[in-house]
Amino acid sequence: SQTIHQWPATLVQPVGSPLSLECTVEGTSNPNLYWYRQAAGRGLQLLFYSVGIGQISSEVPQNLSASRPQDRQFILSSKKLLLSDSGFYLCAWSVGQEAKQYFGPGTRLTVT
Amino acid sequence: SQQGEEDPQALSIQEGENATMNCSYKTSINNLQWYRQNSGRGLVHLILIRSNEREKHSGRLRVTLDTSKKSSSLLITASRAADTASYFCATDGAGANNLFFGTGTRLTVIP
Fold this sequence. Notes:
The complex is a heterodimer.
Chain A: E1 3-7, E2 10-13, E3 19-26, E4 32-38, E5 44-52, E6 55-58, E7 65-70, E8 73-78, E9 87-94, E10 102-103, E11 107-111
Parallel strand pairs in A: 2-11
Antiparallel strand pairs in A: 1-3, 3-8, 4-5, 4-9, 5-6, 7-8, 9-10, 9-11
Chain B: E1 5-7, E2 10-14, E3 19-24, E4 31-37, E5 43-50, E6 55-58, E7 61-66, E8 71-76, E9 85-91, E10 100-101, E11 105-110
Parallel strand pairs in B: 2-11
Antiparallel strand pairs in B: 1-3, 3-8, 4-5, 4-9, 6-7, 7-8, 9-10, 9-11
């Protein structure tokens, strides 16, 4: 069966520090991968999606970047965090043209 | 923005009652989905309804879709305390590779 992992689960980082969040998927090949951010009490904002290794599309201009070094690995990064980067970061995957997405447990990021 | 909007933002009911949440969206779609999110957790897919369908059932869930009004509703019958969560609708936008999520309805079911 397919599973999706995210780590760390929680993270507290000072302003200006770097960031690296990792997402890995098991049990499927060539998934579409997504990074979302959810502000407190709000809906999800799509940040990046990837349909294959090295293929990244960005939905909003921002302080973050994403990379997909392996088929089932998706990394969210920042060189210098801002206070506004605080939030709940969710990774998700889907397969082919299937519309349904499967979400990881999320990472709670607090920038202080 | 293609993002949908749920209504109401928050809903509080007694266990055993039915809960109805509504979603409106702005552009044409291929399908619409509903997801559930327990506090501080990831989202879980509940049900998908295609643009050529008007109603769909899954257990205690009933979803309707009115593409002429660009709206959908999610009905949870005989609610349980364990249904307490936030519920989000998500649309694909015809031809788009991504999902656009609404702002969610926070449902509280009181035992």
